[in-house]
Amino acid sequence: MRSSSRTVWVASALLIVSLCAPTPGMASDVAQPRLDPFERCLQTLRTSRRGRKISVPTWALVRGVRPDTAVLSHLDAQPEFTLPIWDYVAVMADDERVRDGLERLTQHRAIFDAVATRYDVDAETVAAVWGIESNFGRGQGTFSVLRSLATLSCAGRRQTYFRGELLAALRIVQAGHIPADRFLGSWAGAFGQTQFMPGVFWWRAVDFDGDGRRDLMDNAGDALASTANYLHQAGWRRGVPWGFEVQLPGGDSVPFETLGEGRRIRRSLAEWSRRGVTRIDGTPLVSATADSLLQAGLFLPAGLAGPRFLVTSNFSAVFSYNAAESYTLAIVQLADRLRGGGAFVRAWPTDDLGLSRAERREVQTLLIARGHDIGPVDALLTPRTRSAVQAEQRRIGQPATGRPGQKLLAALRAP
Ligand code: CA
Hints:
The chain has about 425 residues and is mainly alpha-helical. The protein is built from 20 helices and 7 strands. The strands form 2 sheets. The protein has a 5-stranded antiparallel β-sheet. The structure holds calcium ion. Calcium ion (CA) binds near residues 213, 219 and 222.
């Protein structure tokens, strides 16, 4: 859940200074003239009406904190916005995550069953969010949530939003839900096994095991129930499909009228059927789990050239968790695969498909074998990995995009 993800920011030290100008007439400025703009910005928040509701010992947790430049450098570099959608889905819904997800579903069967019943959200969708947000709890983020949010409260264009998030985060610690010294998360302040923003915590997180704490970091039950609660409140209904891959009439040659259609322009399956749309295998749209009145919109994530889908309000519920179509498609694809379904049938419009994590690690291992210093083999497209990919692409005469795909992997495998 990354609420800051759609805004492209320009962050610089200058911006921090200019946007944290002192508030005229504040007594504290007179009393402490040596505060720098960042400190003054935090002090303004601390002495605001909402800030005064946080205790002095809790505020002491951010006393002396300095802005984190690494947080600012992440502002416009999120993978789902820079990778082609077929790369994103390939790495997020890969075989390894399907295998892990099936294991977790077995291991936590009682929790998943209870959560599904209580919040009317199917276990596989909750498991898919868990798998993609934190690799089933393994990667919850290494940034200090309080420091990240303090930084974003006083730099960048959405300071008002992040100040609310910082106050929400401080209240989480103050209320004893998460210990301050364990409070780590993403650069944007999302934390826990399913990456909640602190503000969302206060209106959607639940205490599943009843111990008085909503522990989204160390308690899988609390995290999974909170995610199910979020999806339920966003409109997810169990037993309703998120949608399905479809065939449009006329094959590839005759254009289907898509003008004015979109995933939010929903029509009944009966109407889509009248227009000649079928499931991807040619069977009728209406089935035991999808009645003729079910409303769905046409979703073409890569245009008419790629896979085509009809998607329901359940798809929108997942989209609200992290507003990116690539993210949403990866979640529903992974959930389908956890139910035993297959990958999408129609090919993506590319001749160079994306890599799974296993394939990314293989690329990294082959780069190291060719003498590149890329750091650990971790399946992450770090700047060093991308540079090495570019160097190899130049060497073998591929466009030096820094994006590793199947073509690069095949070339590196060759002796
Ligand atoms: Ca709890």
